[in-house]
Amino acid sequence: MGLELRIVLIVISVLVLIYVLRKISKSKLSISDSIFWIVFAILLLLLSVFPQIAFFFSGLLGIETPLNFVLLFFIALMILKLFLMSIKISQLEEKNKQMAQKIAMDQMEQRGKKDE
What we know:
- With 116 residues, the chain is an all-alpha fold.
- The protein has one domain (3-85).
- The chain contains 4 helices and no strands.
- The model has no long low-confidence stretch (mean pLDDT 89).
């Protein structure tokens, strides 16, 4: 991994950490979501400061270059995050549907009481 790439990765990871911490302090990001992004930034920082980690795992997994391992690793993390977000969205959609049904039932009940 070249020095330029390592510097870019360090800068990006520090910027992500600063951004996430600012969003947490302004209560714009939940703690559970922020944990993922903090871990993401720390992993990026570790891989950029200690490129031996990327060399070790690329050799262990039979990946030709450490850069390919880094890209594959972070793409896999993003796919995992996307999957977890899909689950959360599905749960929220179900709750939203249940709340809409409850509100509709309550409104029907109130109309029935007014008609009597």
